[in-house]
Specification:
about 425 residues; mainly alpha
């Protein structure tokens, strides 16, 4: 458990300390909103060739590495290109450079090797070079006609189920964007300016939460690197030392909310708005509950795949189906059966590959761009509310870790944190 932090943690973070209220702050916040996502958009879709480790051209390691470059964030120009009529030719010409094609190199190689062997076998047999050999042709297409619809149903189910998981993950992160704005708006509106350190902490930790969740859902992410420009050094150390970082962020926000001097309840029969301030804490806590729901929903998607029987049976079904395909095509297509086999195999295997690729959505969704959007939105809200972070923490005020230990005494390493509540 990390050591207790000094009360200096309640002072504004370095990036916020020199922010001036008013027009200048708003202008800087607007520039940040415009520029930072643009930089991330560029890096998210940059070519993987620049600093790519030395992987085999068709290796699984290269396929996993390239997933980080499949996180596009669309703007108006990209939508225009996406709708362009030239997309048909552009996409066909880019087949051999596509990640789907590279990911299918091994099964496509197997099918094409088999198809080539079948063609050579029949050619040599018909030329008389092979005698007393069995006939390897399938004289009827009935088995393919009877099984094609079943294969189609499996592929449709596989792809639809994977897309639903991808869409649910994106919607949950979109909900986080909305709730973070709402929570910060409420915090800056209700927490008095006499508690500037608390307002600053609420903004900092609200911006840190999506970064912590992103690192929680992805492998090989550096949480300290992600939050070093958002939290203060001692706060970064405390967050890194925690086991479940998203939960830690929510606990800190809860402790901040508990210590806030929110307006007291004022009820009046003649004042319809009299009860509104009394509900501020409850409404803010509801937003934190949504954070918890998002965390749990993302963990559910990450830990629970589509039932493995569907994935296994679809793979077996398709490979058996494609293995028999060259034997059926030879009589009617001869050597043209090779390109036909390649095209059919690529199309069917590609559908299944896409379904498998998007089944785990967090390594292909642009979560870093969403997290940066949240951060810039919160900083702009903070600038809008004036000198919220210019003051210093009063002597003896609690920092983030001490707030958490005071709220949950059992989490404290010594159990004797001074209570301020």
């Amino acid at each position: 458990m990390p050591a207790l932090l000094s009360h200096a943690a309640l002072q504004p973070a370095p990036l916020l300390r020199h922010r001036q209220p008013g027009a200048a702050a708003l202008k800087r916040a607007a520039v940040t909103v415009r520029s930072r996502p643009a930089l991330l958009r560029t890096s998210a879709v940059a070519s993987p060739e620049a600093n790519e480790p030395k992987y085999g051209l068709f290796s699984d390691e290269r396929k996993e590495y390239s997933r980080k470059f499949a996180r596009p964030v669309f703007d108006f120009e990209r939508w225009k290109t996406h709708r362009s009529s030239s997309r048909y030719l552009r996409h066909v010409l880019g087949i051999f450079e596509s990640r789907v094609f590279r990911g299918l190199a091994a099964p496509l190689g197997y099918v094409m090797t088999l198809a080539t062997g079948v063609a050579l076998y029949h050619t040599l047999a018909e030329a008389g070079y092979l005698t007393d050999v069995p006939d390897l042709k399938l004289t009827t297409n009935a088995p393919f006609g009877l099984t094609s619809f079943a294969l189609s149903l499996l592929l449709v189910f596989r792809t639809n189920s994977s897309y639903q998981r991808w869409d649910e993950a994106r919607k949950m992160w979109g909900s986080m964007v909305n709730r973070s704005r709402d929570f910060t708006r409420q915090a800056l509106g209700y927490v008095p300016e006499s508690q500037p350190e608390l307002r600053s902490m609420l903004v900092r930790w609200s911006a840190a939460y999506p970064r912590a969740l992103m690192c929680h859902l992805r492998p090989n992410e550096n949480i300290a690197e992600e939050v070093k420009d958002i939290l203060k050094p001692e706060e970064v150390k405390a967050l890194v030392a925690s086991t479940h970082r998203p939960n830690y962020c929510m606990q800190v926000l809860t402790a901040c909310l508990k210590s806030a001097q929110l307006p007291a309840a004022v009820t009046s029969n003649s004042d319809a708005t009299g009860c509104v301030p009394a509900g501020a804490a409850y409404r803010m806590d509801e937003n934190l509950t949504v954070y918890s729901d998002v965390t749990g929903g993302c963990e559910r998607i990450l830990r629970t795949p589509i039932p493995l029987s569907y994935t296994r049976h679809t793979s077996r079904f398709m490979m058996i189906w494609l293995t028999l395909l060259p034997f059926t095509l030879w009589d009617s297509c001869r050597w043209a059966s090779l390109p036909i086999t390649f095209i059919v195999s690529f199309l069917l295997l590609g559908i299944e590959e896409i379904g498998v690729s998007i089944e785990e959505p967090f390594t292909i969704l642009p979560l870093e761009v969403i997290a940066r959007t949240i951060e810039t939105n919160l900083r702009e809200l903070e600038a809008t509310h004036g000198p919220a972070t210019l003051g210093k923490a009063p002597e003896g005020a609690l920092n983030a870790t001490e707030l958490l230990y005071d709220m949950i005494p059992s989490a404290s390493p010594n159990g004797n944190v001074k209570s301020f509540f």
